[in-house]
């Protein structure tokens, strides 16, 4: 049996190596005198090197498919891929840049800056409101990079002519008789 193992459109002549005419007892497609134990019909190419794919089965290499200059910046790291039957697997375990920061104190977009578009750090608090008149300050809490509503304070109300600064403007009973 003859093969076109070098894929040149012509049946390989006896003695050409891969694809040579098989000797009695030899597997179809085996390299002269060898037994076919790899890809069916191609034969062994010691040690399982598939030149058309360019890798050796069982080997591994590091990989990174993100933009140049982002690997090992912020959370971005490379992964690994393994050669199986002469072809590289996808890159496993790599972390690529996120389109935007997650406001989580990490550099998620891998540009060397942390949370640069976030108004605040999640979990942070700040006072809000006023301590003028009857008003009392509350607290805002940061969530997803944005300040939440003011909670726990006393807000201004309509002035009621009661001897107190209800509207928290620093004046008492303005507009009252």
Note down, in words, how this protein is organized.
The protein has strands at residues 49-50, 55-56, 60-63, 79-84, 87-88, 125-128, 138-143, 146-147. It has no helices and eight strands. Strand 7 and strand 8 form a beta hairpin. Residues 1-5 and 15-51 have low confidence and may be disordered. The chain folds into three domains: 1-45, no CATH class; 47-115, no CATH class; 119-177, no CATH class. It is mainly beta and 177 residues long. The strands form three sheets. Strands 3-4-5 form a three-stranded antiparallel beta sheet, with no helix packed on it.
Radius of gyration: 36 Å
Structural class: mainly beta
When the domains are counted, the total is: 3
Which percent band covers the strand fraction? Answer: 15-25%
Mean pLDDT: 79
Q: Write down how many β-strands occur, each being a DSSP E stretch of 2 or more residues.
A: 8
How do the helices and strands follow one another from N- to C-terminus? EEEEEEEE
| Termini separation | 115 Å
**Proportion of residues in helical segments:** under 10%
Total number of helices: 0
Output the strand order for the largest sheet. Answer: 3-4-5
Name the overall outline: rod-shaped
